[in-house]
Amino acid sequence: MRGLFIVIPFVFLGQTALAQPRLGEVIGPDKARAKASLAAQGYRLTEFEAEHGRLEIKAVKGPSRIEIHAEEKTGKVLRVEVRKGRGERE
Question: Which residues pair with 80 in a beta bridge?
Fold first, then answer.
């Protein structure tokens, strides 16, 4: 029984880390699909910009902010940067 109390907190911590876009995932090549994909993960889209063949997408979820760089044609995630609170990078 004692082992359950140790394992359970680690399971919940792992789930919060997975609740964000990951490298290689397709978030959507247009604003509407990116917004829907992020909303399904609990994020609110704040900025969507396309230039030089890349998408720069910014979103918030509570105090966390996320910046995603993706391919413009496919919407495939190339880089994810998460900031917790005021400027702290994860």
Answer: 68
Residue ranges and CATH numbers for the domains of the chain are 2-89 (3.10.450)
What mean pLDDT do residues 46-70 have? 95
Contact of 71 with 53, CB cutoff 8 Å: yes
Task: Dump pLDDT digits (tens) for 4-20.
Answer: 444 444 443 444 444 78
Question: CB neighbours of 60 closer than 8 A, spacing ≥ 6?
Answer: 43, 44, 46, 66
From the list 58, 56, 82, the residue with the least C-alpha distance to 69 is 56
Copy the structure tokens of residue 54: 């890349």
Structure tokens at 44: 């609110």
Report the C-alpha gap between 69 and 78 in whole angstroms.
Answer: 6
Token pair listed for 23: 């490298």
- Tell me if 81 sits within 8 A of 23, measured CB to CB: no
